[in-house]
User: Which sequence fits this backbone?
């Protein structure tokens, strides 16, 4: 039981008891796969039975199936990370050998489109438990259909967009950034397990139950959120570019926003938009072609982490952060549970993973026809 799991218990002391649990002491039944609650001991009321009560037996079974997939795959997470490393370092020969040996994925040729296909075949399979059902397939169809439509019906404008992506090497560097997010998610699979259950917990959204995580510590994952938010920040440049093409036929043309005195507030180009702070980026996305998950765009939490304006109580698992610039003072605070933080991290990862499909789609547009011939190469 619990093979390979090393338990570390902090801020606890052994209490001598006679008989059943003392009703005057808080009781918590620890469980790695489900959120846990403190309260009075009730025989048989395990975290699993409580979870079924907060969702349904069908949805709890769905959660178990996802966890079963993680249990089958987690030992190979380091190998997935190694495969990604070989790709990002440009070791395509060793990459092909490793993909075949470790994952039984055959790379058809040394063309980049075939190497990419092998890479994403592996990554998609191992990241599947952390995503939402059917999310990836629907988005791939949507992004591909949008790109094909633009290449067919707005050929010159799409060519100019692809040319800028090629000339600036933006896609290549962004793809590397996207690929970096998978290792920390694999590393966080234990505390993400109860966060995954919140997908099916009908009481969580209503805030009826304060729940906790049985494993790990917030300090191990605080920087992950900030780093992942920076990747989203860059991905939004692509969302804006495609939206501008759809709405106005030019990736550099944003809907005009002006101040009360007539000063232009909207970016003058996509390059200028890239420098806009993450918290202000959504206001210039006027196209509804892709909607960003609001839970994934918590700029206040990101800023608090970036500026070290955040505290964590590992006894209560309460994270306190200060989202506003207040000089030397720290008055306006917000509090969330560690479980809620892991849920927000999961939401952010899912949005970054969704938009990685857009990166992949535009990358293929540069590699294969008809997009490949639209770009002038040195």
Assistant:
């Amino acid at each position: 039981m619990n093979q390979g799991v090393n338990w570390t218990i902090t801020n606890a002391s052994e209490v001598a008891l006679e008989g059943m649990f003392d009703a005057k002491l808080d009781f918590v039944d620890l469980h790695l796969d489900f959120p846990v609650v403190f309260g009075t001991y009730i025989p048989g009321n395990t975290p699993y039975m409580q979870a079924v009560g907060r969702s349904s037996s069908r949805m709890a079974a769905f959660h178990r199936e996802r966890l079963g997939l993680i249990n089958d795959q987690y030992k190979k997470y380091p190998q997935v990370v190694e495969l990604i490393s070989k790709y990002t370092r440009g070791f395509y020969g060793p990459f092909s050998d490793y993909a075949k040996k470790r994952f039984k994925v055959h790379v058809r040729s040394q063309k980049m489109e075939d190497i990419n296909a092998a890479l994403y075949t592996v990554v998609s399979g191992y990241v599947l438990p952390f995503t939402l059902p059917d999310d990836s397939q629907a988005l791939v169809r949507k992004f591909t259909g949008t790109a094909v439509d633009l290449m067919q019906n707005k050929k010159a404008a799409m060519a100019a967009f692809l040319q800028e992506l090629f000339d600036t090497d933006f896609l290549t560097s962004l793809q590397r950034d996207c690929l970096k997010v998978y290792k920390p998610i694999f590393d966080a699979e234990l505390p993400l397990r109860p966060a995954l259950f919140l997908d099916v917990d009908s009481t969580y959204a209503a805030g009826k139950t304060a729940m906790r995580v049985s494993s790990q510590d917030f300090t191990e994952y605080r920087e992950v959120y900030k780093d992942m938010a920076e990747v989203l920040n860059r991905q939004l440049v692509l969302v804006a570019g495609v939206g501008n093409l759809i709405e106005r036929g030019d990736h550099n043309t944003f809907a005009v926003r002006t101040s009360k005195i007539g000063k232009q507030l909207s970016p003058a180009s996509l390059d200028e938009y890239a420098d806009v702070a993450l918290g202000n980026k959504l206001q210039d996305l006027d196209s509804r072609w892709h909607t960003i998950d609001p839970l994934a765009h918590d700029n206040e939490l990101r800023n608090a982490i970036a500026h070290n304006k955040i505290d964590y109580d590992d006894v209560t698992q309460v994270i306190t952060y200060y989202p506003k610039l207040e000089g030397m003072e720290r008055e306006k605070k917000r509090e969330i549970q560690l479980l809620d933080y892991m849920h927000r991290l999961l939401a952010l990862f899912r949005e970054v993973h969704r938009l990685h499909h857009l990166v992949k789609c535009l990358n293929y547009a540069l590699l294969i026809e008809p997009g490949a011939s639209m770009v002038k190469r040195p």
